[in-house]
From TrEMBL:
PANTHER family: ACETYLORNITHINE AMINOTRANSFERASE, MITOCHONDRIAL, AMINOTRANSFERASE CLASS III
Protein name, as recorded: Aspartate aminotransferase family protein
Source lineage: Bacteria, Pseudomonadati, Pseudomonadota, Alphaproteobacteria, Hyphomicrobiales
Organism: Mesorhizobium opportunistum
The organism's place on the tree of life at top rank: Bacteria
Pfam entry (one): Aminotran_3
Family classification: Belongs to the class-III pyridoxal-phosphate-dependent aminotransferase family.
UniProt keyword terms in alphabetical order: Aminotransferase, Pyridoxal phosphate, Transferase
Gene Ontology MF terms in the entry: transaminase activity
SUPFAM superfamilies: PLP-dependent transferases
Length: 427
């Protein structure tokens, strides 16, 4: 019997059967077929515990949601204290918590004027697109092929066919996609002077963290200025100190007109996201502040947690730790490539954002993800490029855990080779 307070299951298989029956059949079966039988029970810091008690080091972090760790004690206490005074609040009225968080976000985001809140990243992207359309009086949106910006109505149309066609959400006449790192293709898309915005993740996460070429992001911004297009920086996975700067666009010296943050802003405890806009993109807030409303957008409990998140991320000791973990991982990956270069073929890194390339099979990272899982490390492959493993150390990761991770990485290699061999034969 597995007992989770009000939730009880006779066995792990009983749980899986009910997940298939009542929740999501395809997702549940996918992970079982992939050999990942994870059902998260207890969680703490950068560790997950399967419902059966097996410990995993978390290098997925749910896309950076657990940037500061699972159930970070300082954030848990912040939320508990907030419950003595706050609840979701009422979106119609000025709010102490929302205003304080908005001020904090604007203060760490040069060039931004207002913060607009939502419950999650996709809605924040919708707000960004609507703000750009308001400012430019244009409709078209440019994004990159294999990009990803969430699953809501406008956001999903900027993403990969996998997420649009199933719901008849593809709109190729309005949402235009170009290859990443191809500045000529970008200019072709922007020069018609009918585009409202370019939206890009500073480093495209779901595509496997391909790094922007030197000068590419700056050239994209210059083209936006040339053709009157608003530049939207999607910082959902690259923000909050993960590049070594508060925002990824700061690390590359590019000034957006609009930016989006989510996931880690919640501290992993209370859903919240934000769209930050400059004066022009935020003009609608002066004309009709209720043009976009969200009952749970900027829920006051979430604002209190997010305010603490921003404060924690500015602490000198945390900033220094990001640098330490960055350097450790860079050196450790060089050593692993020297030892296992036959299958581990490349590293893409900016700060604690890493994409690990397993290029001798089109789904090489799937095999390595499973081998790591069996060694007690959870890192997920990129959905849109399964040669690449997403590797996301937390910003508070300690040296002992870093070393443990790389020992397990090394130990996983024989099993990875075996799984890759099996995958090669099957294909």
């Amino acid at each position: 019997m597995y007992d989770f307070g009000p939730f009880k299951f006779e066995s792990k298989q009983d749980f899986f059967d009910k997940a298939i029956r009542f929740w999501n059949p395809d997702k549940t079966r996918f992970w079982q077929k992939a050999g990942i039988d994870l059902v998260i029970g207890r969680r703490e810091g950068y560790f997950l515990y399967d419902m059966s008690g097996r410990r995993l080091i978390d290098l997925h972090l749910n896309g950076g949601t657990y940037n500061l760790g699972h159930r970070n004690p300082e954030l848990v206490e912040t939320l508990k204290s907030a419950l003595d005074y706050f609840d979701i609040g009422n979106h119609w009225f000025p709010s102490v918590a929302r205003t304080a968080l908005a001020e904090s976000l604007v203060n760490v985001s040069p060039g931004m004027k207002y913060a607009i809140f939502a419950p999650g990243g996709a809605e924040a992207v919708d707000i960004a697109i609507k703000s750009a359309r308001y400012a430019t009086k244009r409709r078209k949106i440019v994004s990159i092929i294999k990009g990803y910006h969430g699953h809501s109505g406008l956001a999903v149309a900027t993403g990969d066919d996998r997420f649009t066609k199933i719901f008849l959400s593809d709109q190729p006449e309005t949402f235009i996609q170009v290859p990443f790192n191809d500045i000529d293709a970008m200019e072709q898309a922007l020069k018609g002077e009918d585009v409202a915005a370019l939206i890009m993740e500073t480093i495209p996460a779901t595509y496997g963290f391909p790094m922007p070429k030197d000068g590419y992001l700056g050239a994209c911004k210059a083209l936006c200025e040339k053709y009157g297009v608003m530049y939207i920086a999607d910082e959902v996975q690259t923000g909050l100190m993960r590049t070594g700067s508060m925002w990824g666009w700061q690390a590359y010296g590019v000034q957006p007109d609009i930016m989006v943050t989510a996931k880690g802003l919640s501290g992993g405890l209370y859903p919240i996201s934000a769209t930050l806009v400059n004066d022009r993109a935020g003009g609608w807030l002066n004309e009709d502040g209720a043009a976009h409303i969200s009952t749970t957008g900027g829920a006051e409990l979430g604002c209190v947690v997010a305010h603490k998140v921003i404060e924690m991320l500015q602490r000198p000791e945390l900033v220094a730790n990001v640098g330490t973990v960055t350097e450790f991982m860079a050196q450790a990956m060089r050593e692993m490539q020297a030892r296992h270069g036959d299958i581990f073929t490349g590293v893409r890194q900016k700060g604690v954002i890493l994409g690990l390339e397993f290029s001798n099979h089109p789904e090489g990272a799937v095999s390595f993800s499973r081998a790591l899982y069996e060694q007690g490390v959870w890192a997920i492959f990129s959905s849109l490029d399964k040669r690449v493993l997403q590797w996301k150390p937390g910003v508070l990761l300690d040296p002992e855990t870093c070393r443990d991770i790389m020992d397990r990485f090394d130990a996983a290699m024989p099993r990875a080779r075996e799984l890759l061999h099996q995958a090669g034969k099957a294909s």
